[in-house]
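quick one, 453 residues, struct below
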Amino acid sequence: MDFYVRDVLKTTGGKLLCGSEDLIVNDIAIDSREVKEDSLFVPIKGEKVDAHKFIVDVLNTANASLTMEDDVASDEVVKSGKALIRVDDTVLAMQAFAAYMREQYHFPIIGVTGSVGKTTTREMIATALSASKNVLETYKNYNSQVGVPMMISRFTESYDAAVLEMGMSEPGEMGRLSDMVKPDTAVFTLVGVAHIEQLKSQDGIFDEKIKITKHMKSDDIIYLNGDDELLRRRSKDVNNKILWYGLSNDCDFKGYDIKIDGEKQVFKVDTPDVKGLEVTLNVLGEHNVRNALVALAVATQYGVDIKDAAKALESFSGQRQTIIKTDKGVIIDDTYNASPDSMKASLSVLGGYDCKGKRVAVLADMLELGPNEVEYHKEVGRYVKEYGVDYLIAYGRLAKEYLNESGIDGVLVDSLDEVYKETVKVLNPDNVLLFKGSNGMKLKEIVSKILQN
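---
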């Protein structure tokens, strides 16, 4: 299916400064280095860089570009024959065009949101669906106000389904994402405290994220995590058909009899149609059991045989949490980001990992948690004790709360150099080390340095 400059003009209300309305624009790009011939370049004015300065060079390749300026239609641009479209706001115009593109496709779209676990859940759903369908899923971290439009521009008629991650951090963002995506099915992982500074409370987070259902009909399905107390309490405010997944007995898709088998975990699944199905995963942690449960649920909703979906999940490895075996011990690299819920999930993986020596947690501060940040760090300290960690290396301004609350043996450090020095001391072929903290704490640098050396 082809889209044209005239479609951009119609959907954005933009003004054509030069070029033809008949030029094809099937791709949306915000990076001047990634444009193709059929791209619509969307220059964004950032805090450090205004991408409008790349327009002339971009139009050597791309068919069209948006602009918020009136004086960029130079002789060079006019002679190129490429299209330049004047709009009031390039991001809003991009979103309007993406919403139009989405309307032209009729395969099911599954939207995934939640405070924690969106990426892994989305990956598992796509894996399960792929057992018998051609599936498009969110690429890289394209889950935002600018990422989602680029994902929509990748739709083609060859796909049977799309699984799109929908992230937000500010009020109003989920509504705008829903206006573009209009998911047919929604998945809500849980309500945590990520972005609580902006949304004030967990109820505020729920109120924003549930807007994923803004364009869904009452009989469209939303899958809710049945082990999340807040989702249970607020389910009365959901106007769609709810199916529950989790480890609680009353879940529609229930996991139980979870057993660790080396680096795998095996569990049983009950669904409305199947009882006692055994599933094996290559990833550990109860949170991954829940992710697998909703993946099986969505797959069966769209006609995939549950046994085929379960078989597909056996090969799932994921991207965010990486287990690396070295001759100096096992490293669990989960340094992408951190919140109390994701900390708990990672600690459960460490606690469940078969270990002859010590389980060591290298934990850094969790950032952007608002006025209750101290209590959230104390909460993680209690998790540390609960999951049988033997030794704790705590790094950051708030990390002392981990040590104080856990009461286990460990050390508090205040620099990455010290983190590295303390980590080297506990490297041992029999030990397992978990690295976890907010991205801004840069624990990834320590993991890289250890592996290099």
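Residues 5-89 form a domain with the Udp-n-acetylmuramoylalanyl-d-glutamate--2,6- Diaminopimelate Ligase; Chain: A, domain 1 fold (CATH 3.40.1390.10).
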